[in-house]
Amino acid sequence: MEKNSKKVLFFDIDGTIFDYKRGIIPNSTIEGFKKLKENGYVLTIATGRCFAQLEILEPIKEYIDYYILANGEHIINKDNELVFESPFTKSELEKLVASFGKYNLGYGLQGETLEVINENRKDVIDVIEHCKLPYPVVYKDFHINNKVYQAWVVDNKNCIENLRKENPDLVFVPWLDNAYDIMRKDASKGEAAKFLIEKFGFIYSY
Predict the structure, then answer these.
(1) Are the C-beta atoms of 152 and 118 separated by less than 8 Å?
(2) Do residues 199 and 83 make contact, with C-beta atoms less than 8 angstroms apart?
(3) Neighbours of 132 (CB within 10 A)
(4) Cβ atoms of 55 and 21 closer than 8 Å
(5) Quick check: 46 pLDDT over 80?
(6) What pLDDT does 206 receive?
(7) What is the Cα–Cα distance from 123 to 205, expressed in whole angstroms?
């Protein structure tokens, strides 16, 4: 553990610093980040989002020191340097994508800098537009040669229990009526925050 006397704060994005109704980060939040930075705090984003979904943070980007992404499975610093990662294993990913194909489901995969979907389909597009997310790239074979930290699926066929049985090492977390985030069982923003504190010796400030 590195010795460090700096205090660290963690912030989620959706429903915390980002105002969904207005589609902005409020000016009061921007000013708050500026003052915290001036007072020497280490400011960290902790989110289920991936790197490709961070453009909404542009108004406060200059104040952020670290990013805990994909629910704790990918951590980078402000210079986009890797601090920690725990992507799906090749076996986990192959099995998951095979399950998606078996039930002909629309899905997304979140990599280091890119988010992809398997194809353009209405159920996938509806989810993306509903959540006001950047539109991913269509790249069906992305999983073959790329790291994937988190996945998501749109299940309009009530296949979720089959998916869980076929992929017992993964966790399926609902975030819309028919959409699920998928991550490894060890994924945790809280554990990632502890890792960051211990690695750099920060003081956690409530």
Answers:
(1) no
(2) yes
(3) 11
(4) no
(5) yes
(6) 60
(7) 41
Instruction: Write down the pTM of the prediction.
Output: 0.91
Q: How far is 12 from 46, CA to CA, in rounded Å?
A: 5
Exposure string (b/e) for 113-125, b if CB count within 10 Å is 16 or more? ebbbbbeeeeebe
Residues 179-201 pLDDT 10s: 999 999 989 999 999 999 999 99
Longest dimension (CA), the chain: 53
180: left (phi over 0), alpha (psi -120 to 50) or beta: beta
Alpha helices in 22-174 (DSSP H): 27-38, 90-102, 122-130, 142-145, 160-166
Q: How many other C-beta atoms are found inside a 10 Å radius of the C-beta of residue 107?
A: 23
Closest CA to 176 of 125, 130, 136: 130
